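Q&A log
Question type: sequence-to-structure
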Amino acid sequence: MKINLATSAGFCFGVRRAINIAMETAKINKPVFMLGDIVHNEEVVGQIQKTGIKKICRLSAVKKEKILLIRAHGCSRGTLQKARKLGYSIIDATCPMVKEIHAIAKRLENDGFKVIVIGDKSHDEVKGIAGQLKTKAIVIDKPENIPLKKIKSIKKAGVVVQSTQNLDKTLEIFDILRKNIQEVEFHNTICKPTRAKQNEIKIMPLKNDVMIIIGSKTSANTKRIYEISKSLNNKSYWVNSSKEIKESWLSRAKSAGITAGASTPESTIREVVKKIKKQ
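Response status: OK
Response body:
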């Protein structure tokens, strides 16, 4: 069987950078904490936990010097302010591309625009973007969930996008916003690695009998890659590791396309390739 591995498969710059910062921070002889996981991948989370960095659900007053490591997805201004007030030292591993979205959102608000975020309402990155603002942002995840009554009352809006959103869905949402708001300033803040992954996944399912998408079920960008692939090739399968691959998926396939989300380690990708080669 021919195996075709996507050139964009695996870690993006922001994830690799965040992991490297976490590993270096763990070497400091002080307690290190995170509000959640460094990225959305169980294997990576396990590696980080082994370094001694602890995941916490809430901030508490600091008696001894402690470090709060900000994850790749970023956080709100309120979280940073509270952490500093409670005595934490801050080490920021937020993806630079996400930081750029923060800056754009704040600039839009300062210029008098109502900020609209296209993204998953419960996602950490979206919460961090909305959390940069003094006023409440409008978050839209799907075209069918646009609050038209509220939208039509806005005179001018500034739109930013979660960095891992589906471009086609984003443009569909923006088209509706453009038709219902008098003045709209649109910033396509979907990051380059996401665009590269989505461009490849629009072609690969059409050129391969089977598609294997590797990544955690908690990964938003992996979910979108899978959704695009499935819409083009029904024999698209989403796995977290090589253990989940079934022989029946590959029994009659002459070619298998493989890609992976932005937080999937290279070691996991290699294991999947190795298992498929044995079929």
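Response note: The longest helix spans residues 96-110.
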